[in-house]
Amino acid sequence: MRIATWNINSVRTRAHRAVDLLAKHDIDVLCLQETKVTDEKFPREPFEEAGYHVTCHGLNQWNGVAIVSKDEPEEVQTFFPGQPGFHKDPAKEQKREARAVSARIRGVEIWSLYIPNGREITDPHYDYKLQFLYALARYVETRAQSKLLLTGDFNIAPRDEDVWDISLFRGKTHVTEPERAAFQMLEEAGLEEVTRRFTEKERWTYFDYKSLRFQKNEGMRIDFQLASEPLARLIQGAQVDLVERAGDKTSDHVPLIADFDVPDFASVR
Questions:
Q1: So where does Mg(2+) get bound (predicted)?
Q2: Known catalytic residues?
Q3: 38 within a domain of the structure (yes/no)
Q4: Residue 253 labeled ligand binder
Q5: 34 appears as a binding residue in the annotation
Q6: With b meaning 16 or more CB within 10 Å and e meaning fewer, what string describes 224-255?
Q7: What is the pLDDT of residue 265?
Q8: Is the pTM higher than 0.90?
Q9: In a domain, 213, yes or no
Q10: Tell me, what CATH number does 199's domain have?
Q11: Is residue 42 part of a domain?
């Protein structure tokens, strides 16, 4: 089973690029983040015409996640237990945002996640980011013995080598010790970052639009696929699609693709 994750940065703008990506790599499951569209306005038709099912969760023009799959999804969830909400005014209702969606496909519980950015260390969004990750780790603890996969934009660079120049990031979000500790909690809960060992040469999954970051190869590794042990042992390889990032009017993120030895149920019946 070939699974890809991609922060598409507006699915209505780039639906055709996503469909082309599916065909180019023969992808079985594509997890999308930052779709920036309500469920009613999600551009389902191009995906369905290509033979895919669409599972999406979008509440407004911000955030938004989706899972596009060849197999019909089962047991869809649009939040995980304990997932916190957010409003910049603490006196207001802290409503849950469209940052998580999951589906069971070929016996694997697959999540498309858009972890909060954090904005600034002094911003309430930073605390929200940490609370989101803590709650996610607690959920993982209850599911780590099954085939579980967390994919998406984690907005964390877990190691210094996951940014092109750590000296430019110190004191900023994405590389702080609390964020990295929260990421480590996911691993301690029973997950493995399965794509890293296959993507050391072409490691970046994000390049800022500004300052010619892509052209200078000044990127960040902040998109991941984290698998539970029963699934991690089935990993066969992984790659990033830098060609997609080099395209015209593409996302600032790079598709991250992994192959797992999970059979097509239809082929073994």
A1: 7, 34, 153, 155, 252-253
A2: 114, 153, 253
A3: yes
A4: yes
A5: yes
A6: bbbbbeebbebbeebbbbbebbeeeebbbbbb
A7: 58
A8: yes
A9: yes
A10: 3.60.10.10
A11: yes
